[in-house]
Amino acid sequence: MKIAAIVGSTRKESFNLKLAHFMKDRYAGQFDIDILEIGQLPFYNQDEENTPSAEVVEFKQNVADADAVLWVTPEYNGTITSAMKNAIDWLSRVNQVMIGKPSWIVGASMGALGTVKAQSHLRDILFAPGLSSPILPGNEVLISSIHEKVDEQGYLTDEGTIDFLDTTVENVRPWLEKQAAVRS
Question: What CATH number corresponds to the domain at position 92?
Fold first, then answer.
Protein backbone atom coordinates (compact mmCIF):
# COMPACT_ATOMS: atom_id res chain seq x y z
CA MET A 1 0.00 0.00 0.00
CA LYS A 2 1.41 3.35 -1.08
CA ILE A 3 1.22 6.11 1.55
CA ALA A 4 2.03 9.76 0.90
CA ALA A 5 3.39 11.24 4.13
CA ILE A 6 2.98 14.99 4.58
CA VAL A 7 5.04 16.39 7.43
CA GLY A 8 3.89 19.79 8.66
CA SER A 9 7.28 20.94 9.86
CA THR A 10 9.90 22.16 7.40
CA ARG A 11 12.65 22.15 10.05
CA LYS A 12 15.57 19.85 9.18
CA GLU A 13 15.76 18.39 12.70
CA SER A 14 11.98 18.20 13.18
CA PHE A 15 10.81 15.50 15.58
CA ASN A 16 7.82 14.95 13.28
CA LEU A 17 10.05 14.45 10.24
CA LYS A 18 12.07 11.95 12.27
CA LEU A 19 8.82 10.24 13.31
CA ALA A 20 7.85 9.94 9.63
CA HIS A 21 11.24 8.37 8.85
CA PHE A 22 10.88 6.00 11.82
CA MET A 23 7.47 4.89 10.52
CA LYS A 24 8.79 4.51 6.98
CA ASP A 25 11.58 2.23 8.25
CA ARG A 26 9.59 0.28 10.84
CA TYR A 27 6.56 -0.42 8.66
CA ALA A 28 8.36 -0.91 5.33
CA GLY A 29 6.92 -4.43 5.03
CA GLN A 30 3.38 -3.11 5.35
CA PHE A 31 3.48 0.30 3.70
CA ASP A 32 5.47 2.06 1.02
CA ILE A 33 5.71 5.47 2.69
CA ASP A 34 6.85 8.35 0.49
CA ILE A 35 7.69 11.46 2.56
CA LEU A 36 6.68 14.44 0.44
CA GLU A 37 8.46 17.78 0.64
CA ILE A 38 6.10 20.72 1.22
CA GLY A 39 8.57 23.49 2.08
CA GLN A 40 9.18 24.33 -1.58
CA LEU A 41 5.50 24.79 -2.46
CA PRO A 42 4.65 28.39 -3.34
CA PHE A 43 1.94 30.09 -1.34
CA TYR A 44 -1.45 29.07 -2.65
CA ASN A 45 -2.83 31.74 -4.98
CA GLN A 46 -6.18 31.34 -6.71
CA ASP A 47 -4.82 33.34 -9.65
CA GLU A 48 -2.33 30.51 -10.27
CA GLU A 49 -4.37 27.43 -9.40
CA ASN A 50 -5.10 26.51 -13.04
CA THR A 51 -1.45 26.90 -14.07
CA PRO A 52 0.47 25.82 -10.95
CA SER A 53 4.23 25.51 -10.68
CA ALA A 54 6.00 22.23 -11.41
CA GLU A 55 6.44 21.69 -7.64
CA VAL A 56 2.68 21.88 -7.08
CA VAL A 57 1.92 19.60 -10.04
CA GLU A 58 4.40 16.98 -8.79
CA PHE A 59 3.15 17.24 -5.20
CA LYS A 60 -0.49 16.81 -6.20
CA GLN A 61 0.38 13.90 -8.52
CA ASN A 62 2.25 12.12 -5.71
CA VAL A 63 -0.79 12.47 -3.46
CA ALA A 64 -3.13 11.37 -6.27
CA ASP A 65 -0.99 8.25 -6.87
CA ALA A 66 -1.04 7.25 -3.19
CA ASP A 67 -3.62 4.94 -1.63
CA ALA A 68 -3.76 7.09 1.51
CA VAL A 69 -2.16 10.10 3.18
CA LEU A 70 -0.27 10.05 6.47
CA TRP A 71 -0.38 13.51 8.03
CA VAL A 72 2.47 14.03 10.51
CA THR A 73 1.68 17.25 12.28
CA PRO A 74 3.46 19.32 14.85
CA GLU A 75 1.46 21.86 16.80
CA TYR A 76 2.23 25.56 16.40
CA ASN A 77 0.20 27.98 18.50
CA GLY A 78 -2.49 25.36 19.06
CA THR A 79 -3.01 24.40 15.40
CA ILE A 80 -1.36 23.03 12.25
CA THR A 81 1.56 24.80 10.60
CA SER A 82 1.21 27.32 7.82
CA ALA A 83 3.22 25.02 5.54
CA MET A 84 0.73 22.19 6.10
CA LYS A 85 -2.25 24.50 5.57
CA ASN A 86 -0.69 25.76 2.34
CA ALA A 87 -0.22 22.18 1.09
CA ILE A 88 -3.84 21.42 1.98
CA ASP A 89 -5.03 24.50 0.09
CA TRP A 90 -3.27 23.30 -3.06
CA LEU A 91 -4.74 19.78 -2.64
CA SER A 92 -8.28 21.09 -2.16
CA ARG A 93 -8.45 23.08 -5.39
CA VAL A 94 -9.04 22.31 -9.09
CA ASN A 95 -8.66 18.51 -9.45
CA GLN A 96 -9.20 17.95 -5.69
CA VAL A 97 -7.03 14.83 -5.36
CA MET A 98 -7.98 14.24 -1.71
CA ILE A 99 -11.70 13.61 -2.15
CA GLY A 100 -12.41 10.15 -0.77
CA LYS A 101 -8.72 9.42 -0.15
CA PRO A 102 -8.27 8.04 3.40
CA SER A 103 -6.13 9.94 5.88
CA TRP A 104 -4.24 8.90 8.97
CA ILE A 105 -2.97 11.50 11.45
CA VAL A 106 -0.02 11.28 13.84
CA GLY A 107 1.99 13.94 15.61
CA ALA A 108 4.61 14.56 18.23
CA SER A 109 5.54 17.50 20.42
CA MET A 110 7.65 18.30 23.44
CA GLY A 111 4.51 19.34 25.34
CA ALA A 112 2.32 17.23 27.62
CA LEU A 113 -0.67 17.05 25.25
CA GLY A 114 1.15 15.94 22.14
CA THR A 115 -0.52 17.53 19.15
CA VAL A 116 -4.13 17.20 20.30
CA LYS A 117 -5.30 20.66 19.18
CA ALA A 118 -3.51 20.51 15.82
CA GLN A 119 -4.94 17.06 15.12
CA SER A 120 -8.45 18.21 16.03
CA HIS A 121 -8.15 21.15 13.65
CA LEU A 122 -6.66 18.96 10.93
CA ARG A 123 -9.54 16.47 11.18
CA ASP A 124 -12.01 19.35 10.78
CA ILE A 125 -10.12 20.66 7.76
CA LEU A 126 -9.94 17.23 6.11
CA PHE A 127 -13.73 16.98 6.25
CA ALA A 128 -14.12 20.19 4.19
CA PRO A 129 -15.90 19.83 0.83
CA GLY A 130 -12.74 20.20 -1.31
CA LEU A 131 -11.03 17.41 0.64
CA SER A 132 -13.68 15.02 2.05
CA SER A 133 -11.05 12.64 3.36
CA PRO A 134 -12.24 9.78 5.60
CA ILE A 135 -10.37 9.20 8.87
CA LEU A 136 -10.64 6.14 11.13
CA PRO A 137 -11.74 7.49 14.53
CA GLY A 138 -10.20 6.32 17.77
CA ASN A 139 -6.68 5.78 16.42
CA GLU A 140 -5.05 9.09 17.20
CA VAL A 141 -1.31 9.07 17.75
CA LEU A 142 -0.48 11.98 20.06
CA ILE A 143 3.12 11.60 21.16
CA SER A 144 3.91 13.90 24.07
CA SER A 145 7.37 14.69 25.49
CA ILE A 146 8.94 13.43 22.28
CA HIS A 147 12.36 14.80 23.26
CA GLU A 148 12.42 12.24 26.10
CA LYS A 149 11.46 9.32 23.83
CA VAL A 150 14.18 9.49 21.19
CA ASP A 151 17.90 8.79 21.04
CA GLU A 152 20.62 11.33 20.17
CA GLN A 153 19.81 11.01 16.45
CA GLY A 154 16.10 11.60 17.10
CA TYR A 155 15.12 7.97 16.49
CA LEU A 156 12.13 6.82 18.54
CA THR A 157 13.28 4.44 21.29
CA ASP A 158 10.51 4.55 23.92
CA GLU A 159 9.07 1.01 24.00
CA GLY A 160 5.63 2.07 25.25
CA THR A 161 5.28 4.59 22.43
CA ILE A 162 6.52 2.10 19.85
CA ASP A 163 4.09 -0.56 21.13
CA PHE A 164 1.23 1.96 20.92
CA LEU A 165 2.24 2.91 17.38
CA ASP A 166 2.40 -0.80 16.43
CA THR A 167 -1.12 -1.32 17.79
CA THR A 168 -2.40 1.69 15.88
CA VAL A 169 -0.84 0.37 12.67
CA GLU A 170 -2.57 -2.97 13.28
CA ASN A 171 -5.89 -1.11 13.57
CA VAL A 172 -5.38 1.32 10.71
CA ARG A 173 -3.86 -0.99 8.08
CA PRO A 174 -6.96 -3.13 7.38
CA TRP A 175 -9.14 -0.02 7.32
CA LEU A 176 -6.80 1.70 4.83
CA GLU A 177 -6.76 -1.44 2.68
CA LYS A 178 -10.54 -1.56 2.68
CA GLN A 179 -10.77 2.14 1.82
CA ALA A 180 -8.29 1.68 -1.04
CA ALA A 181 -10.26 -1.28 -2.39
CA VAL A 182 -13.46 0.76 -2.36
CA ARG A 183 -11.74 3.55 -4.33
CA SER A 184 -10.42 1.12 -7.00
Answer: 3.40.50.360
Q: Which domain holds residue 44?
A: 2-183
What is the C-alpha separation between 177 and 161, in angstroms, rounded? 24
Instruction: Tell me the pTM.
Output: 0.97
Q: How far from chain centre, in Å, is Cα 43?
A: 19
pLDDT digit of tens for each residue in the chain (184 aa)?
A: 999 999 999 999 999 999 999 999 999 999 999 999 999 999 999 999 999 999 999 999 999 999 999 999 999 999 999 999 999 999 999 999 999 999 999 999 999 999 999 999 999 999 999 999 999 988 999 999 999 999 999 899 999 999 999 999 999 999 999 998 887 7
Burial bucket for residue 51 (CB in 10 Å: 0-12, 13-18, 19+): exposed
Q: What is the CA radius of gyration of the chain?
A: 16
The total number of structural domains in the chain stands at 1
